[in-house]
Write a structure and sequence with these properties.
By secondary structure, the protein is α/β, with parallel strands linked by helices. It has a single domain, classed as 3-Layer(aba) Sandwich (Fructose Permease). About 40% of the residues lie in helices and about 25% in strands. The chain has seven helices and nine strands. The protein has a seven-stranded mixed β-sheet, sandwiched between helices. Strand 8 (about 140-145) and strand 9 (about 155) form a beta hairpin. The longest helix has 12 residues, at about 125-135. The protein is globular, with a radius of gyration of 15 Å. It starts with a strand and ends with a helix.
Length: about 160
Amino acid sequence: MGEINLARVDDRLIHGQVMTKWSRGLNTNAIFVVDNPTAKDPFMKEVYIMSTASSGMTIKVFSTDEVVEYWNKTKFENYRAILLFKNIDTVNEVVEKGLPITRLNIGGIAKTKEAKFVIPSVGLKPSDAEILKSLASKGIEVFFQTVPDTKAVTLQDALKNF
């Protein structure tokens, strides 16, 4: 049976920090990008899958329905995976559909007009904060951390800045 080493929200999805710091530090052998628009775009899927050709890491790109179906059918086989999401709404969707996420790292969300920075790399909208509180109430550990060698910030402490 596989396992979810970490679920992470980072609107850049796969980039150097994910590949070098998060995946190696967690003994990960797969990264699963979960994003409906990316899953529907053959060119972008290929870009992500090919981005790690030399790393020995398996990359899969899923829609929300596909990742839940893959979990239900295979329990992620023997993969120790990081799940990467572009936004908090998508995490909430897969949790509602039954994906067993226990730890959620919020690592990078660009600030928009309606968002406020809660840590330097994360801008949250009021609706994001409400979803994160809801996820935490379901027993999911929500924390903010850009890279593993920086201090993690709890949801409670991050929302003090909101």
